[in-house]
Each structure stands twice: as structure tokens, then as C-alpha cells.
Amino acid sequence: MNDDESAGPSSLFWLYARAVGDRHQRAGEALSELSRIMQALRAPDGCPWDREQTLETLKSYLVEETYELLEAMDAPVEHREELGDVLLQVVFQSEIRAESGEFSLADVVLAVSDKLRRRHPHVFGSTAARSVNDTIENWESIKAKERKKRGAPSGRLSGVPRSAPSLLRAFRVGQKAAATGFDWPELQGAREKLDEELRELDEAIADGDREQLFDELGDVLFATCNLARHLEIDPDQALRQAIAKFERRFGVIEKELDRAGETFEQASLDRLEALWKIAKRQENAL
User: Fold this and answer.
1) Which fold has domain 166-233?
2) Which residue from 54, 58, 59 is spatially nearest to 163, judged by alpha carbons?
């Protein structure tokens, strides 16, 4: 029996602690190297493209890289690569700020570390948190105090960027409202609210009032996000999955029409509906 096999609990803990410590050290060294590379790229004798970038020009790249990351999260290798691209945006923007003497990458890392400690008093302090809801309430309460301290809007629904995608913003606003207790106590209430909004949408359709239609359709979408929240389902991911499913089935219809020498314009609605059912059966059989 070797030393590792005979190791007791304390020895195993030491081995684990050393492994974790090595991982943190490697991360720090790798991040430092990335920061040095970025500084070299921005230097007078560096890369012309990197040198001409500004915070404004990097905005579109950050959005693009974020969406690419979302698509890659189910595959480890692609996930790692896209995480690197998003991290590069953080390092890039931090370097631009450092050049003007405002803050550095180290300041960014220290700030978020301090924030995590500050907003997790149940881990790094003496506050108790018996459930996920307790954790969320503590987080929102601390966040509101921080916003008030720096003079930012401190309402309980503050902090959700207005530039965020509407689906995400609806979900987060619903979460913040729920944290105050302004929510249905059970799933059924959220489900009945969706039925109510759908009835009002039907009435607006019957009336033909475009302004009312616009308003009621928005209420249906918001109620759907609240239902998703109660179901503990990310509505954005659910919608992405539904879109992908539609694209797959539509692709089957295209192939079937091509095989028959038909076009969409030539095919009747009954024909298209029949092909859709074929595509649906094929997918369900997999």
C-alpha cells in the first residue's frame, strides 16, 4: 500500500488543498501572462488593429462574443475557447482604462472579489441564510444599499439594464419584484394570470385596436416570463430551444419538397401541414 492509499482524512484534505492551491496559482499566472500580452499588443510597436480599438469599437465585439459563448456552453472544448474570447474583452477594456490611469485589470479582479465577499455574508460573515430565497433577499438588500450609497437609483426594481434583451429584463424584473413578496405564492396564480392576459388579448383582437393589441400582447409575454420563473425555467433558453426545433422541422420540409421537385410557392397549405407532421414524427422517433 502506497502513502496515498493509506492516507487518513487529514492527509487527503491536505492533498486536496494543495491541488486547489495549485489551480488558483496557475489561474493567477495565466491571467498575468494574458495581461502582459494585451499590453504588448497595445504598445506603440504592437498590433495596428489592437492599438486603434476604443471602448466604443469594442462594444459590438463584446455582444458578439457573449452570444457565441451562449451557443458553446454545451460543448467543453468550444466552451473553453469562447470563455477565453469573453475574458479577452475584459482584459482588453481594462488595458484601455489602465492606459488613461483610471483602473487596471487588478482593480477589476479585486473589485469583484470584494463584491462577492460583501454580498455573501452567510459565507464570509455571520449572517444566516437557510434557503436560496434567503440568499437572494440578502443579495438584493445589500445591492440596494450599495446603490443608494453611491447615489444610484435604489428602488427595488433598479439594477436591471434597460439595454438588456427584453426577455431577460422581464425575467429579472419579475425576480426582483418577487424578492419583495410581490408575487403569487403558488404556480397556479402565475398560470391563471397568463390565461387572464390571453383573454384580454383575444378581446383586443376582436376590437381591432392596434394600440390595445400592442399593449395586451406585451402583457401576455410578460406573464409568460413570470410563469417561466415559477416553473424555474429560463425563458430565453426555452425560446432558443423552440426556435431550434422549428428550424430542424422546417429543414425537413425543405428537403422533402426538394426531393419531390416542389417549391414552397407550389405547395398547398395542406401539403405543408402534412410535411410538418412528418418532420415532427421523425424528430419524436429519435
Assistant:
1) Helix Hairpins (1.10.287)
2) 59
